[in-house]
Amino acid sequence: ALHRADMRGVNLSGADLRTAGFFRATLNGANLAQAQLASASMPETKLQEANLAGADLPKANLSKADLKGADLTGANLENADLTRTQLRDAVLDGSNLRGSNANEGQIAKARSLHGTILPDGTVHE
Fold first, then answer.
1. C-alpha distances in angstroms, 18 versus 15, 37, 70, 71?
2. Residue 4 and residue 25: Cα distance in Å, rounded?
3. Residue 1: is its pLDDT beyond 80?
4. How far is 40 from 101, CA to CA, in rounded Å?
5. Residues β-bridged to residue 31
6. Which candidate, 90, 4, 79, 84, places its Cα nearest to that of 52?
7. What are phi and psi of 3, to 5 degrees?
8. Does the model's pTM come out above 0.90?
9. Measured between alpha carbons, how far is 3 from 56 in angstroms, rounded to an integer?
10. 20-34, pLDDT tens digit by residue?
11. C-alpha span between 1 and 10 (Å, rounded)
């Protein structure tokens, strides 16, 4: 587990990080595109401006994480814990939020939602 680790700007593109722990870590500006993060534990992690395009995050714990300005294009967040997760200015185009607990207020703060599968399974146009 990487508790409180400072990994700003790290390139973990395509890495297999399933079930990894990043409690309160700082990953601002990190490249996690296409990373495998199923069931990863990332509560209170800072992921501002991070690239999570195409990342696989089903059942990940992102509670209280800061994803401000993050690119989540095509990311799979199915059944993820997004309790109090900051999504302001995040790009969620084509991402899958089905079954997650993201609420309408959080989702409304995203920069872009084209083609996003919302928690209730409907697709945002």
1. 9, 4, 20, 20
2. 4
3. no
4. 16
5. 11, 51
6. 90
7. -80, 125
8. yes
9. 21
10. 999 999 999 999 999
11. 16
